[in-house]
Write a structure and sequence with these properties.
Layout (H helix, E strand, L loop, with lengths): L4 E4 L5 H12 L3 E6 L2 H12 L5 E5 L5 H15 L4 E4 L16 H28 L3 E6 L12 H20 L5 E8 L5 H8 L5 H6 L9 H12 L10 E4 L7
Helix pairs in contact: 1-2, 1-8, 3-4, 4-5
Amino acid sequence: MQNKTVLITGATTGIGKATALAFAKGGYNVVITSRNQGRGEETMKEIKATGAEASFMVLDVTNEQDFAKLIADVVAKYGKLDAIVNNAGISGEQAGFLADSSSENFKSVLDTNVMGLFYGMKYAIKAMLKTGGGSIVNLASIAGANGILYSAQYCASKHAVVGLTKAGAVEYATQGIRINAIAPGAIKTDILKAAIDAGSYSEESIAAIHPMKRMGTPEDIANGIFYLASDASPFMTGTVLFVDGGYNAQ
């Protein structure tokens, strides 16, 4: 039987990279994207070291035409696209309260976190409808279900991710396409490290807001993403899976 193929955006660091390795170990052909070619090629070597088939393609998710072409290229190379993980995202500036943040920054956050994810869903769905279906996993956040201090713009973008996930899931529920989202708590990634380095938060204060009193790891989230995308969750669609150390239970 031919291996399934997954496309993961923003897959050269943090959650994306851990997710790529999880799918590689799970027997998938893994296609990763990033704007950084050097980092992409290094990550592809790590994936191939697991024995998996892997490809790296340069992609800026905010470019709709490039995203459409990339998905067409994946289907041409591997026959079909079985799953896409819309992971690429940015946190934007840490500017304090909403009124102190810039409109330009908000537009940038929306372009990547919402429009980039929308393009991924749109063209993956078009491809999957032609080949019998597939699975989509979107990266939401605890910020997609709550208000987070100093993060109004990011919260807005992740609330939009949840809306796209749920509406898309309902629309394609009878057409073989499952669409789910994962909502991480605070995870030890480069994005969060930048916020800590900027003095917006400390690692101790972030850990303290989770009932488990620790931050998550990229692997914690990768395991959840793999479950949502795989055949282990055939009756799940429109779900937001919280992997957050208990944060959303408070």
